[in-house]
Design a protein that fits this description.
Elements lengths: L21 H17 L4 H23 L4 H36 L1 H19 L5 H31 L1 H23 L1 H11 L8
């Protein structure tokens, strides 16, 4: 009696791999890095706006679920965000200015405290070194402290009064809400466009 041949079930297809598409992703990475390098001077407001839109998108979807249009929800969220940032800056800038002024006014007291704490070391060193070397050592230490303080104040003044720093700050404060508004309004459409542009056979990866 003949036995029936064993039946074999077809093996499941192998999972999609990225090996065959590595040239595509390598090219995308090279183009992305080149754009980042070329646009590094103006990229910060756009990057900040994209981050803001990403974190505010769930709130926009929640408002859409309550019956608001996407545009109206975006306007309300962006207005609240701008008001929150402006309120935070209004509270932070005076406090920061007061702390900087207090630090500058207390620099002489800090120098006097440092000299007072160094005095016991100077007294002990007098028994080991001549008086001229002790005086030179103390002058160098105090001079180094004063030079560091002057350098810190100069750097702070350059940052505060630099024209380019002011332009970058204004562009960040002005462009970030604008970029966030348009990205947040069209976020769902952009996500669908990017998703549809991906190869379907590699969608799971």
């Amino acid at each position: 009696m003949d036995t029936p041949p064993p039946s074999f079930s077809p093996s499941p297809p192998p999972p999609p791999r990225l090996i065959g598409q590595w040239p595509f992703w390598l090219g995308v990475g090279i183009v992305f890095l080149a754009l980042v390098y070329v646009l590094r001077g103006i990229l910060l407001p756009f990057a900040a706006g994209a981050v803001v839109a990403y974190f505010l998108n769930p709130l926009a979807r929640c408002l859409e679920g309550r019956g608001l249009s996407r545009t109206l929800a975006t306007v309300l969220i962006t207005a609240l965000f701008v008001l929150a940032v402006a309120g935070g800056l209004a509270l932070l800038i005076p406090a920061l200015q007061a702390e900087i002024s207090r630090f500058i006014n207390q620099l002489p007291a800090y120098a006097a405290t440092l000299e007072e704490r160094l005095q016991p070391l100077v007294t002990q060193a007098r028994h080991l070194l001549p008086d001229e070397q002790i005086d030179q050592l103390r002058e160098r230490m105090l001079g180094g402290t004063g030079g560091a303080a002057r350098w810190a104040l100069g750097a702070l003044g350059a940052v505060a009064s630099g024209g380019m720093a002011l332009v970058n700050l204004l562009s960040l404060l002005v462009l970030t809400p604008v970029v966030a508004f348009y990205l947040l309004r069209d976020w769902e459409g952009m996500v669908r466009s990017i998703d549809s542009a991906l190869p379907r056979r590699h969608a799971e990866t």
